[in-house]
Amino acid sequence: MRTKQILCPTDFSETASHAISYAIEMANFYNVGICLLHVVDKPFGDKYTRVLAETPDELIERMEKEAAEKMKQFIATLDETLSFDTAICHGHPVEQILSTAEKVDAGMIVMASHGRKGLDHFLNSNTTEEVACKAHCPVLVVK
Questions:
Q1: pLDDT at 132 over 90
Q2: CATH of the domain at 58
Q3: Residue 90's closest CA among 35, 43, 36, 41?
Q4: In Å, what is the CA distance from 3 to each residue of 14, 35, 91, 105, 107?
Q5: Number of C-alpha atoms within 13 angstroms, CB side, residue 102?
Q6: How far is CA 126 from CA 19, 96, 114, 129, in A?
Q7: pLDDT at 123
Q8: Would you say residue 45 has pLDDT above 60?
Q9: Is the pLDDT of residue 134 over 50?
Q10: 29/51 Cα distance (integer angstroms)
Q11: Is residue 135 in some structural domain?
Q12: In Å, what is the CA distance from 75 to each residue of 36, 83, 84, 91, 135?
């Protein structure tokens, strides 16, 4: 962990920004870089509603461009002394986070938990919980 970069998945939410502040603090302490990752989940609306006026590939491309712009704006607000790598990919978030952690040989994953409870937790898959269980490196979960 002490010589490997930190992987920090983000969905650009306030909670994810909070997790990134922890990643920055740890990166400064260990003098390592950070890889910010955003996963564009596969679009599913067109399959069920037939309302979209664009193909799924066009939708994914548009979503990736929007994510790249958000990532660019977000990085502009961060500490300039740190080394940031960025990655935007599409697919199932858990699979992509774990795959990216292996690719970049992450020493740690720092990610947010949205803190769902009760029925909301039961009905929505918990990406953070699944990553923490399956990752081959330490995972810091930030609320």
A1: yes
A2: 3.40.50.620
A3: 41
A4: 28, 14, 29, 10, 7
A5: 9
A6: 16, 14, 9, 5
A7: 47
A8: no
A9: yes
A10: 49
A11: yes
A12: 9, 11, 8, 23, 26
Please count the structural domains in the chain.
1
What was the pLDDT predicted at 130?
Answer: 93
pLDDT, average across residues 111-138: 77
Polymer length of the chain: 143
Residue 128 near residue 141 (C-beta atoms within 8 A): yes
- Region 51-77: what's the mean pLDDT? 78
- pLDDT at residue 121, as a whole number: 46
35's tokens:
């890889």
Residue 56 is which amino acid? P
In a 10 Å sphere around its CB, with 0-12 CB exposed, 13-18 middle and 19+ buried, how is residue 33 labelled?
Answer: middle
Query: Is 80 within the bounds of a domain?
Result: yes
Location of structure tokens 């994810």:
16
